[in-house]
């Protein structure tokens, strides 16, 4: 259930009582890879248990998987969607608690455990302001500080619409609407500025470059690749984004659940088999932590000094030919991410 990866080169100090203490440039993260069912309450209970296990391992930042409170099926998103409240003050109203049980759980746990949480993603509903328009549903990640305040909200920008002949067809746009922002937030020491994407977003290097241009040292992608794209591209894309941005890249996937026998399948939604393999990649493009397909809390210590070291050693940022090409972050003036 647990895996802990640490770098033997990481520095540490010893306190007066003999306890080892990580230096301020070392950040401990936990990637929570757990099974997702068609029962929302079961999913909430599982998330709570895994968050507590992350805290037991002294993680400072916990990352949940994509669509952790719902089956990953376009036909299910409407039923499982929640209205995400403002949450910037870390306080929810009674109405918020009723309409947003998943958000309540994450806010409560962030405060109780004194931990940063990147909340994977859940289906989010926004209510239409008038009858001439319909409600919208997004694939949304909320980011919460240790005081329980929502500090950023990322709506999946690039929807997963693919058709690989003979293997997989999936079209998120049947139900979901795309987000319209580049999402970053400042987590302070040791992680600094963190950028967030969701699953299919990782295929777009321009989005990652915008986040890095905002000063991100860590990019986080909750994701649920499948058994076709997972073995082919999951690790490759993470390593590419890490090397491109000379930064750490983290991914958190649901654990793999195999299709049930037809006689035992009591779900009204089609089954989706996730690849699993939640991973942490260094700025050098090396794997510093990785799960298999099973449920696990993967704990990794990140030496954030490696980001600056890499960027000084191979200074591509200062060597770009902006007279020939450029990636423009058109949302850079609005970094509130519409929390």
Structural class: alpha/beta
Low-confidence stretches: 7-22
Tell me the total number of β-strands. 18
User: How would you sum up the global shape?
Assistant: globular
Helix and strand sequence: EEEEHEHHHEEEEEEEEHEHEEEEHH
Mean pLDDT: 90
Radius of gyration: 19 Å
Number of helices: 8
Biggest sheet architecture = 8 strands, mixed
Percent range of helical residues:
10-25%
What percentage of amino acids are in beta strands? 25-35%
Distance separating the two termini: 34 Å
Describe this structure in words.
By secondary structure, this protein is α/β, with parallel strands linked by helices. It has 8 helices and 18 strands. Strands 1, 4, 5, 6, 7, 8, 9 and 18 form an 8-stranded mixed sheet that branches. It has a 6-stranded mixed sheet with strand order 12-13-14-15-16-17, with helices on one face. β14, α6 and β15 form a beta-alpha-beta unit. It starts with a strand and ends in a 20-residue tail after the last helix. 45% of the residues are buried. About 5% of the residues have low confidence.
Give short descriptive properties of this protein.
alpha/beta; 8-stranded mixed β-sheet; 8 helices
Topology:
Elements: E1 2-5, E2 12-14, E3 20-22, E4 26-33, H1 40-56, E5 61-63, H2 74-80, H3 94-99, H4 101-113, E6 116-118, E7 122-126, E8 136-144, E9 150-155, E10 161-164, E11 168-171, E12 183-186, E13 193-196, H5 205-213, E14 216-222, H6 229-245, E15 248-252, E16 279-281, E17 287-290, E18 296-303, H7 305-313, H8 316-319
Parallel strand pairs: 1-18, 4-5, 5-6, 13-14, 14-15
Antiparallel strand pairs: 2-3, 4-18, 6-8, 7-8, 8-9, 10-11, 12-13, 15-16, 16-17
Helix pairs in contact: 1-4
């Amino acid at each position: 259930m647990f895996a802990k990866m640490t770098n033997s080169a990481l520095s540490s100090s010893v306190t007066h009582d003999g306890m080892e203490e990580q230096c301020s440039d070392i950040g401990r993260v936990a990637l929570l890879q757990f099974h997702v069912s068609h029962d929302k309450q079961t999913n909430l209970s599982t998330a709570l248990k895994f968050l507590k296990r992350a805290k037991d391992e002294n993680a400072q930042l916990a990352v949940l998987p994509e669509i952790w409170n719902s089956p990953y099926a376009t036909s299910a998103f409407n039923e499982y969607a929640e209205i995400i409240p403002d949450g910037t003050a870390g306080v929810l109203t009674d109405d918020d608690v009723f309409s947003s049980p998943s958000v309540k759980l994450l806010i409560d746990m962030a405060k109780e455990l004194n931990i940063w949480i990147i909340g994977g993603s859940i289906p989010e509903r926004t209510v239409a302001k008038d009858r001439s328009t319909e409600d919208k549903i997004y694939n949304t990640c909320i980011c919460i500080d240790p005081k329980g305040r929502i500090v950023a909200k990322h709506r999946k920008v690039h929807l997963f619409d693919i058709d690989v002949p003979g293997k997989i067809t999936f079209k998120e746009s049947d139900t979901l609407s795309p987000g319209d922002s580049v999402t970053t937030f400042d987590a302070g020491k040791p992680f600094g500025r963190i950028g967030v994407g969701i699953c299919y977003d990782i295929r777009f290097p321009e989005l990652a470059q915008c986040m890095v241009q905002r000063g991100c040292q860590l990019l986080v992608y909750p994701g649920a690749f499948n058994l076709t794209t997972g073995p082919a591209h999951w690790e490759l894309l993470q390593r590419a984004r890490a090397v491109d941005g000379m930064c750490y890249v983290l991914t958190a996937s649901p654990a793999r659940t195999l299709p049930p026998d037809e006689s035992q399948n009591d779900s009204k939604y089609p089954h989706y088999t996730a690849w699993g393999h939640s991973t942490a990649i260094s700025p050098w493009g090396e794997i510093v932590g990785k799960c298999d397909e099973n449920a696990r809390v993967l704990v990794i210590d990140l030496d954030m000094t490696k980001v600056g070291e890499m960027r000084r050693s191979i200074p591509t940022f200062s060597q770009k030919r902006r007279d020939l090409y450029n990636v423009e972050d058109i949302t850079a003036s609005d970094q509130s991410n519409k929390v």
